[in-house]
Amino acid sequence: MRYDGGKTQEEVGITLGEKIQQLRRASGISQDQLAEQLNVSRQSVSKWELNQAVPEINKVIMISELFSISTDELLTEKSVSQSEGVSKPADTITLEEIAKINLANRQIIIGVKTLVLGLVMVVLEFLFLPVFGMIQKEHVNGQGFYTEFMRYASMQPMPMVFSITIVIGLIGTLCLLKGYFYRKSNRTNP
């Protein structure tokens, strides 16, 4: 297939719109999210990706900063790392690396949210024990059989609730650790 004055697609290289689309997808963000970060409409991002329009120079700079690539790599038809005789600068990052970093960050965020959920559940469970004791006393005409509310922790359904909370905490910890180790391994092995 011929493009651009008789050159093949391989000779022309990747367009700015295709690069923006690849960077956006590799980062796991939608056109709406990118548009919001760049303070433009979603339709503008769509037109850029379809090569129907070109972003203003200040938007190109914002895109390069957002995706941690140089403006040269963003604007040239061939990526800097693909150019013959030119080595990849140390401060540039590939789309694959961006995707790996985003995956690690998502795992860390999920881990933190899950751990926070587990901690909130533990606090609520311990706050619920006195209420559980009062409910128990009402069922036996004010003659509750435990004077310490902590003893209600061993009565059903509390052991099951505590077990679920522990599982949630472990899942959160595993996600957090997996994200950190994944991020660390990708920094040392680009």
The proportion of strand residues reads under 5%
Query: Helix fraction?
Result: 55-70%
Taken from the alpha-carbon principal axes, the silhouette is elongated
Order of helices and strands: EEHHHHHHHH
The pLDDT mean sits at 77
Helix run count: 8
Q: Between the first and last Cα atoms, what is the distance in angstroms?
A: 34 Å
Indicate the radius of gyration in whole angstroms.
27 Å
Task: Outline the secondary-structure elements.
Elements: E1 2-3, E2 7-8, H1 9-12, H2 16-26, H3 31-38, H4 42-49, H5 57-66, H6 71-75, H7 95-139, H8 158-188
Antiparallel strand pairs: 1-2
Offer a concise description of the structure.
With 190 residues, the protein is an all-alpha fold.
Structure notes:
This protein is mainly α and 190 residues long. The chain has two domains: 2-82, 434 Repressor (Amino-terminal Domain) (Orthogonal Bundle), CATH 1.10.260.40; 95-188. 64% of the residues lie in helices and 2% in strands. It has eight helices and two strands. Strands 1-2 form a two-stranded antiparallel sheet. The longest helix has 45 residues, at 95-139. It is elongated. It starts with a strand and ends with a helix.
